[in-house]
Each structure stands twice: as structure tokens, then as C-alpha cells.
Amino acid sequence: GADFERDCAAAWVKYFKQWRVADVQRRRRLDELRRQGAQEMSVQTTFAPEGGAGEKGKGREDIQDMLERKKAR
């Protein structure tokens, strides 16, 4: 009811205030690193099935299928 909506809204406000502070700090760190001559790198991450090395082609659908199989156990 009303308590849930109030608490939920308060949690989102808190989250976004914290996110904004963290984002400002991140931007400042990046600006400082650029001034120091740091080079930006492109980084990609993958999900590793069953704790092993990630395979190309593993996408959201593969991960959803894996979760569904684990739920069925």
C-alpha cells in the first residue's frame, strides 16, 4: 500500500543521489587521468557459463536458458 510506495520512492531517491555523487566522482577521475595523458581502452565483459571461460556468442538468451534450467532442478 502507501507504506510500500513511500519506502520504494525513498529508496529510489537515495539510489539516484548516491549514483549522481559516484558519477561526478567518476567523471572527475577520468578528466584527471586524461590530463595526465592516460589512454582510454575499450573493454568488453562476458558471462562465463558454469564458472568456466566465456564463450563467444553467449548472450542474454543463453543466460536466461541457463537460469531456467537451474530453476527446474
Short synopsis of the structure:
Residues 53-73 have a biased composition (Basic and acidic residues). The protein is mainly alpha-helical and 73 residues long.
Low-confidence stretches: none
What is the overall shape? Answer: flat
Can you write the helix and strand succession as a string? HH
Number of strands: 0
Q: Secondary structure elements and their pairing?
A:
Elements lengths: L1 H34 L24 H13 L1
Organism: Tolypocladium paradoxum
Protein name: Cytochrome c oxidase subunit 6B-like protein new16
Descriptive notes:
The protein is mainly α and 73 residues long. It has a domain at 1-38. The chain is built from 2 helices and no strands. The chain has helices spanning 2-35, 60-72. The longest helix is centred in the N-terminal third of the chain and has 34 residues, at 2-35. The mean pLDDT is 85.
